Amino acid sequence: MWRALVVTVVAVMFASCGGGGINSYEDAMEAQVGIMEEMVGVLEGVTDQASAEEAASEIEALGSRIAEVIAQVQELPEPTQEEMQEIAQKYAEQGQSFQEKAASQMMKLAEYPSLSDAWQRAMANMR
Known about the structure:
0% strand
């Protein structure tokens, strides 16, 4: 039960970059936050169809990294409720900041279908 909650919290809050060496739920959160920030950075570079096509492959690669992190989370022992609350509190402000930054880039998903498809495939890895 808690493991599913943790994966959901991590996914919703958008959580270092490589996805390797996940030894705790906090490591996982840091990894996913870093990956999601990279995704938004990729979207920021989209200015036309050609850059959208390039970004699509980058987004999918980042989605694969998210899947690696989540696979490693599945191997961790279940956290306590206290651990989960600490992690949620620690990343709440960062999550809000990320959402604001990401919101300004989401219109690009509607504008470029290939980018939208890549984003959806990447986010499917968070389940």
